[in-house]
Amino acid sequence: MVPQNLPAYAASLGDSHARLDALADLSQRLLEHCRARGATQAEVSCSEESGLNVNVRMGEVETVESTRDRGISVTVYFGQRKGSASTADLRESSLDATVEQACAIARHTEDDAAAGLAEAALMATDLREFDSWHPWPIDADRALDLALACEQAGRDADRRIENSDGASVGTGESISVYANSHGFVGRERSTQHSIGCALIAGRGDAMQRDGWYSIGLSADDLESAAAIGRKAAERAASRLAPRQVPTGEYPVLYSAEMARSLIGHLLGAISGGALYRRASFLVDSVGQPLFPEWFGIEELPFLPRGFRSASFDAEGVATREAPLVTAGVLQRYVLGSYSARKLGLQTTANAGGVHNLQVAANAGDLDAMLRGMGRGLLVTELMGQGVNNVTGDYSRGAGGFWVENGQIQYPVDGITVAGNLKSMFAAIEAVGTDVDPRSHVRTGSILIGRMTVAGESEAAD
């Protein structure tokens, strides 16, 4: 069927394109075996990943981990009965057994009217790369040197840094092939690298922890190790001597890295699985105004070096630039083919998730956002999972800074911010230009005009 020594064979070919060729050949052979066993449709996903991760703490090496993984997943359909099986063993006997197991599962399942591949006419034909392949030729010794330098720079930056939770350096490569019985074969390859540091300021009961990290598809996109350490120190020290605020209703400004979570809650509520189960507070919301008229979100799958750039989704469907929210109105849901069929709709090419979201800004940087807010809470940390996707009720532990006259006055913690997501979306007053580039959800800080903040029991001024 395939060479039993395929891993060594692929590695001997040396480059990622050759490895992708080997995986593509494997996927075609597996599809042939699925057809030979009577499957009416089939799909195969093959992947290889490798990486290096190191961690240090207080100037000492804690861990050095080299990883190498692979996976083969086979899904077959007998009419509208589905079966799936997977393996990491590339011996011919194991691959045969995986196909047979998927077929056996399918033969014993019930028909599902929504089961099956995405429609053949929707398969991607313009397959591109997006400058996402930038291997970092770094060995463990050099990675440890960077991590140690990062932590040391942070510990040296402020005498109030008393301890450390450590620093880390990571690098990884991933290649994958998705193929199905429509004749589609899609190849992807990407790299991702990171440097991070977490430091502790103060001592005893007065300790405060914070950190910083940088992540990129290319090592050239990373902040310097020293800069990351210094920023981690600055963030940790700025949180010393926190206070609470009186319980009341205030404007709440989510920093850019926290604002991503609000968009994440939106995505969870408009994703197919939640919708067809009627487990979302945004059921039947397409075409409805959810945000202010100026607010918009675009999906941009073709961004060079985008974290989630892709020509096709997890089912081979061609991706496309498309609005998610325009003039405050929800334009569509986030669907793969299965959830789309359950809802009587068509896939939005989002099997596997969204591909780079851009939230439109209507304000300036963080300083401008603070001045615009005047008085209120800047949230820089969120804790807990107090979000009900069915009702939209929202209640999360938070930390950050109290703002007066557009200026940060003092750190706060031990508080809770609460509201209802639908009301919170409608109450967004501004989105900043201070985009955090470390995610496929690109948004600046988000100001919500009024939320309940639970802190001290006495009434607010």
UniProtKB/TrEMBL annotation:
GO molecular function, one term: metallopeptidase activity
Domain Metalloprotease TldD/E C-terminal: 247-455
Keyword vocabulary terms for this entry: Hydrolase, Metalloprotease, Protease
Residue ranges of every copy of the Metalloprotease TldD/E N-terminal domain listed in the record: 42-106
InterPro entries with a match to the protein in the record: Metalloprtase-TldD/E_C, Metalloprtase-TldD/E_cen_dom, Metalloprtase-TldD/E_N, PmbA, TldD/PmbA_N, TldD/PmbA_sf
Main EC class the enzyme belongs to: hydrolase
Domain of life: Bacteria
Domain Metalloprotease TldD/E central span(s) in chain numbering: 134-240
UniProt-listed Enzyme Commission number(s): 3.4.24.-
NCBIfam families xref list: PRK11040.1
UniProt family annotation: Belongs to the peptidase U62 family.
PANTHER family tied to this protein: METALLOPROTEASE PMBA
Protein name, per record: Metalloprotease PmbA
Name of the gene: pmbA
